[in-house]
Amino acid sequence: MTKKLCGTNYPLSICFIVVNEFCERFSYYGMKALLTLYFLTYLGWDPDLSTAIYHAFSSLCYFTPILGAIIADSWLGKFKTIIYLSVVYVIGHVVKSVGAIPTVGNKDVHIALSMLGLILIALGTGGIKPCVAAFGGDQFEEEHVSERQKFFSIFYMSINAGSLLSTIITPILRSDVQCFGDDCYALAFGVPAILMIVALVVFIAGSSLYKRNPPQGNILLQVCNCIGFAIKNRVNRHKYDPPRKHWLDWAEDKYSKRLIQEIKMVLRVLLLYIPLPMFWALFDQQGSRWTLQATRMNMAFGGSVSIKPDQMQMLNALLILVFVPIFDLGIYPLIGLCRVNITPLRKMATGMIFAALAFGAATLVEINVMKTVVVPAPAGSCLLQVYNLAENDVTVKVPDTSLFPHPIPNLQDPPQYEMIPLGAPGKQIKVEVTHNGTTSTCDLLFKEEEAYSLIIYKNTSGVMCKLVEDNIRKHDEGKPFLRFLNTQPEAINITVGKAEFSVEPGYSITPNQTVDRGVYADVSCSTQSRTCSDLNLGLLDFGASYTFILKQEKDKIEAHKMIDVNASDVHITWQIPQYALMTAGEVMFSITGLEFSYSQAPANMKSVLQAGWLLTVAFGNVIVLIVAEGAGLEQWKEFLLFMGLLLAVCIIFSVMAHFYTYVDPDQLQKMHREDLYKEDDDEDDEKYDKKMKNNDIHLKKAEKTTKL
Q1: What's the pLDDT score for residue 702?
Q2: Which residues have CB under 8 Å from 143's CB, separation 6+?
Q3: Has residue 27 got a pLDDT over 70?
Q4: Distance, C-alpha 564 to centroid of its chain
Q5: By the 8 A CB rule, do 386 and 413 touch?
Q6: Are the beta carbons of 146 and 85 closer than 8 angstroms?
Q7: Which is nearest to 295 in space by CA: 356, 192, 358, 365?
Q8: Which has fewest Cβ within 10 Å: 240, 462, 615, 669?
């Protein structure tokens, strides 16, 4: 007899299943939130490759549920499938965490372990995806309809709670905890690994309480075999046999007319799935391109409070918890009162429009973000700015150009980089510098696609030139870069936060280092002979690059701030509209799409439609993978491209939806009755209706979780 929670009809076993799902979703989304920045900062990949691998992993996570469903339905059953694939899942997390430890091998080892871990995680999370929710529904008796419905609501909440908490916590573990001298990815990946171990232990702990249904055979394989037989039979016999009304009718030699009719109904729905991957191509970029966009924005709230760029993904989980009741209890009933016939397919098309508008908003944000970015020089050119550290104004002349037409004042922050055409990968240029009426020539070597600062200073022998390479790329996590140039005759040691700078004498310059964003008003410095007065560096803001000129002013050393790359002044809150639009699109597209699909197919074909739905997500990520690696567009143009593609697909989908004829529920009911009770002529309608009601609630509620 099934054990119940005290005083209720809820099986005690569902407690273990809900906790298992919370921990599993925490582990998955906590790990996934870090991936893009992990690829950029730890593995050193460029943004396009990082985006491509992120979406390749996401795609694999939605291909593997087909494998999990086949294993569960054909051989092992749901319980054993969840156990075995969860073990694979745990191993993947552990391997991924070990790959994030800097002392374990070299970069090639880190990449190999990371990729192996991601493959195992994809097999685990995808394999158990079609099993857990349905296994939870199996625990209830058929007559406990309301209890089952409430269970799926709790189950869905546990998914979103795990997602929300993990996308807040794991970025904090990554950034605020330091290990091995840098961001602690090993810990940030290790905590999700621990949660997945907890998920497995909790699930196993409830083993004696579970109600386990034996494997019933996989309808997906039967459908594929029927379709394959029809195609083969048509190719081999169409010249000899009379034509058939439908190409699937060629399978009548081996399969029942009922099965063929059911497959025809399913294929009509699957045909509508063809345009759907484009929606997921936009939706899943929240964890890739939108996270990269966030790294180039101002993430400060108030004086010292700021968020991490990978934490913005929490908005989707948070907003969906808010939007679902708003749409179900407010917007949809209001539309109904206005006597507007909004069919499921129209809702889905509207969801596509919302997603396209989200990328329109992302495009506007990106255009403004780009104003704070220094565009790299193209091939055959380089960038140059000038620091005048001489006592008076200087005039700089670059041969065959009209650059720097006005005198450059002493210690003036250069307004911008100027582009110098080289016409070759490298070129020696004689730059003329005039100071106090005396002209000197500096013979300098410039390389294409580089950015330089020309430092002009004066010593006992006259005006001197020093050419240094600059970093114009914003930090992958939005931190500020800074470096120090020493004009003093002795070395100076400076500590800025956790960063240590040792500046050699004689106009030497340190390499760029990152520090946390903040106000640095009392920075300690020292020389071999004395301790400097504390330096006031002021605000070091998100995404900026600074050069500080250390110069003697009266009786102390002052730090003069030069801004090489402007700070990111577009605030992160400007991403909220695009997240809100995308989440609204998800509510109208994803949930409605699942409900439509299951209302239009026979009960025993719902797993086939689930497989088809998950494949649309997989192929959507493949689209992003192709565009990220192949298009080579500026980011705002890429956003605009995706927006245009989705609007075009929305038009195609709307035309297809216009010609779609909804299945009559009475026809489905008749087919369901024949399918379920074909061997029992005495089955009464009341018993059938009750059983079908239970079955439909179970399937619809369970499959709402497939997106997550």
Answers
A1: 40
A2: 690, 694
A3: yes
A4: 30
A5: no
A6: no
A7: 365
A8: 240
DSSP per residue, 432-445: EEEETTEEEEEEEE
Q: Which two tokens stand for residue 582?
A: 């995308």
Identify the residue with better confidence: 114 or 556.
Answer: 114
CA 620 vs. chain centroid, Å, equals 13
Backbone angles phi, psi at 438, to 5 degrees: -105, 130
- Supply the pLDDT for residue 317: 86
Instruction: Give the tokens for residue 624.
Output: 């992003």
Q: Which of 704, 487, 680 is nearest to 613 (CA)?
A: 704
Query: What's the whole-number mean pLDDT along residues 303-309?
Result: 81
Burial (CB count within 10 angstroms: exposed 0-12, middle 13-18, buried 19+), residue 105? middle
550: three-class secondary structure by DSSP: strand
When pLDDT is averaged across residues 521-543 and rounded to a whole number, the result is 85
**Mean pLDDT, residues 470-475:** 91
- Tokens linked to 627: 């565009």
Average pLDDT over residues 161-178: 89
Short-list 366, 557, 421, 562, CA closest to 483: 562
Which CA distances in Å does 77 have to 125, 132, 138, 188?
Answer: 17, 11, 12, 33
User: Per-residue confidence at 683, pLDDT binned at 50, 70, 90?
Assistant: very low
User: How much is the pLDDT for 337?
Assistant: 87
Which are the contacts of 277, defined by CB distance < 8 A and separation ≥ 6? 616, 617, 618, 619, 620, 622, 623
pLDDT at 61 over 80: yes
Long-range contacts, 650-657 (Cβ 8 Å, 24+): 650/275, 650/349, 650/352, 650/353, 650/356, 652/275, 653/272, 653/275, 653/276, 653/345, 653/348, 653/349, 653/352, 654/345, 654/349, 656/271, 656/272, 656/275, 657/272, 657/343, 657/345, 657/346, 657/348, 657/349
Q: Which of 14, 152, 132, 116 is nearest to 83 (CA)?
A: 132
**Considering the entire predicted model, what is its pTM?**
0.83
Residue that is written with structure tokens 């171990």 in the block: 197
Residue at token pair 């980011």: 635
Query: What distance lies between CA 601 and its chain's CA centroid?
Result: 32
Tokens of 691: 């059983």
Token pair 């917007």: residue: 331
CA 432 to centroid of chain Cα atoms: 50
Q: What angle do CA 362, 367, 369 make, to 5 degrees?
A: 90
Q: Across the chain, which distance is largest between two alpha carbons, in Å? A: 112
Q: Are 532 and 526 in contact (CB under 8 A)?
A: yes
CA distances from residue 508 to 423, 442, 485 in whole angstroms, order as listed? 30, 18, 6
Structure tokens at 148: 């089952």
How many angstroms separate the first and last alpha carbons of the chain?
Answer: 33
Residues whose CB is less than 8 angstroms from the CB of residue 105 and which lie 6 or more positions away in sequence, other chains included: 113
Task: Please give the structure tokens belonging to residue 480.
Answer: 């500020």
What is the reported pLDDT for 691?
46
